[in-house]
Specification:
With 221 residues, the chain is mostly helical. The protein has ten helices and no strands. The protein folds into two domains: 121 residues, no CATH class; 99 residues. The longest helix has 24 residues.
Length: 221
C-alpha cells in the first residue's frame, strides 16, 4: 500500500529527479505520521518526541525541495490534511484497525499517484488508469485480509470481499485485458482462500506476488 502507488506512477510517467526527494519525503512522512498517531493514541506525545523530531527533520527539507521545484504539488495538501485528520480521530478513539481508517489510509497512499505525475511535470490525466486500478486493488485487499484474519469467520466480510472483487473485474478489464486478468485472479483469491485458510505469513507472501502482478498490469495498460 505504501510503495505500489509511487512505483506504478513513476513507471507510467517516467522517472524524473524530483521523484527521488519525493520518495524520501513520502517514506519519512509515513514514519512521522505513524509516530504522531501513536502520540495521539497514547495521549503521551513526549514519549515519541525523539521520533517525531527525527522524521520531521528528515521529511521537511525533502518535501520543501519538491515544492520548490513543482509548487503545484501543494494542490494536494488539503486532501492529505483531511485524510490525516481522519487517521487522528481513529487514533484518538484507539480504533486504528477500523475499516474506515483503512479506507482513509488507502486514500492517503493513492494520492501519491497524481503527486508523482505533478512532480514530473506531467498532467495527472496521464495516470488516471493508475488512480483507478491501484486503489481498487488496495481496497479489495483490505476487505480480503480482514476476512482472513481479524474478521475470520465473519460471513458479511467474506461476501463483501467477494462482491467487491466481482464488481471490480469488469472495471479493470475496461482499462486493459492484463488488468482484467489480474483482477479475475484476485476474485478467485477472495472466493477460495477464506474457505481454505492461510497463515499470515503465506497470506503476506501471496499479497507481495499479487502486488507485483498489479504493478506489471498497470504499467502494461
Amino acid at each position: 500500500m505504501l510503495l505500489l502507488p509511487y512505483l506504478a506512477a513513476v513507471l507510467v510517467v517516467g522517472a524524473r529527479w524530483p521523484h527521488l526527494p519525493l520518495l524520501g519525503a513520502w517514506l519519512g512522512g509515513y514514519l512521522l505520521s505513524y509516530y504522531a498517531s501513536q502520540a495521539v493514541k497514547t495521549r503521551r506525545p513526549g514519549r515519541f518526541r525523539a521520533q517525531l523530531v527525527t522524521y520531521a527533520v528528515v521529511t521537511a527539507p525533502l518535501a520543501a525541495l519538491v515544492v520548490a521545484v513543482r509548487p503545484a504539488v501543494l494542490w494536494y495538501a488539503p486532501a492529505f490534511a483531511a485524510l490525516l485528520a481522519v487517521n487522528a480521530v481513529y487514533a484518538w478513539r484507539r480504533r486504528e484497525r477500523a475499516l474506515g481508517n483503512d479506507i482513509a489510509l488507502v486514500g492517503l497512499s493513492s494520492l501519491m499517484i497524481p503527486v508523482v505525475a505533478t512532480a514530473a511535470g506531467v498532467s495527472p490525466a496521464a495516470v488516471v488508469h493508475v488512480l483507478v486500478a491501484v486503489p481498487a486493488y488496495s481496497l479489495g485487499t483490505v476487505l480480503h485480509v480482514k476476512s482472513m484474519i481479524r474478521e475470520r469467520g465473519n460471513r458479511a466480510y467474506r461476501w463483501a470481499s467477494v462482491a467487491y472483487h466481482l464488481a471490480a473485474v469488469p472495471v479493470a478489464a475496461w482499462i486493459s485485458l492484463p488488468l482484467g486478468a489480474v483482477f479475475t485472479l484476485l476474485l478467485v483469491r477472495a472466493w477460495v482462500l477464506p474457505r481454505w485458510g492461510a497463515s499470515p505469513l503465506r497470506l503476506g507472501v501471496l499479497e507481495i506476488v499479487l502486488t507485483l502482478c498489479v504493478l506489471a498490469a498497470v504499467v502494461a495498460a
